[in-house]
Amino acid sequence: MDANAIIKGEIVDDKKSLRREIRQLKKACPYGEKLRKSVSVWEKVEQLPAFQQADIVLAYWSMDDEIYTHDFVKRWAGSKTLLLPCVKGDELELRYFDGEERLQPGEGYAIPEPVGELFADWGKIDLILVPGVAFDKSGNRLGRGKGYYDKVLKQTGAYKLGVCFDFQLVERVPVEPHDVKMDRVVASGE
Fold first, then answer.
1. Under a CB-based contact definition with an 8 Å cutoff, are residues 117 and 101 in contact?
2. Among 74, 83, 106, 135, fewest CB within 10 Å belongs to which?
3. Mean pLDDT over all residues of the chain?
């Protein structure tokens, strides 16, 4: 086995280990505490020039273990164009958010996804709110391992804003060449 293969194997193992560690921390954090921490993240995000100046924002509809986005998405849907991702096989499609009542369970993780119009001009996205398993202060991100967001992030020049709970901001995230850095990370405890 060559040195590159050994290093890649070590990075993959480090990622798996960090995912397990963060999963335990998420489980230990009560849902009400996650909601409280989420509010502090959105208060910070709303103050950022990158958010204030953005017209088209790619957000996400959160799962129970992520920064809670539902109220944030609904609040800003009237004044900004909000997009949400939809899992289609190994790729993400982007669709316009046009109301909670127009969401259906998607094929990936059963996350509610919009069924409205497809958004194809990824170059027009101003800001992407990026969930993750873990982030570090250098802007590195660890996702769930499917690479969905890395594919999207490489295809747009949008400002990439990672959002996370304070316990998801770690000293160092193991990275591979395909991993995309965030322009900034906002954590609940900053």
1. no
2. 74
3. 90
Angstrom distance (rounded) from CA 82 to CA 56: 6
CA neighbor of 43 nearest in space, from 71, 16, 81, 84: 71
| Run of H or E including 10 | helix 3-28
| 3-state SS class at 130 | strand
What is the pLDDT at residue 51?
Answer: 98
Q: Is residue 73 within 8 Å of residue 97, measured between CB atoms?
A: yes
Q: The pTM is what?
A: 0.91
Q: What is the pLDDT, as a whole number, of residue 93?
A: 92
φ, ψ for residue 162, nearest 5 deg: -75, 140
> Which residue has 């993780």 as its token pair?
109
Q: How confident is the model at residue 190 (pLDDT cuts 50, 70, 90)?
A: low
Residues 80/57, Cβ–Cβ less than 8 Å = yes
SS3 assignment for 26-81: HHHCCHHHHHHHHHHHHHHHHHCHHHHCCCEEECCCCCCCCCCCHHHHHHHCCCCE
Please give the DSSP secondary-structure letter assigned to residue 136: E
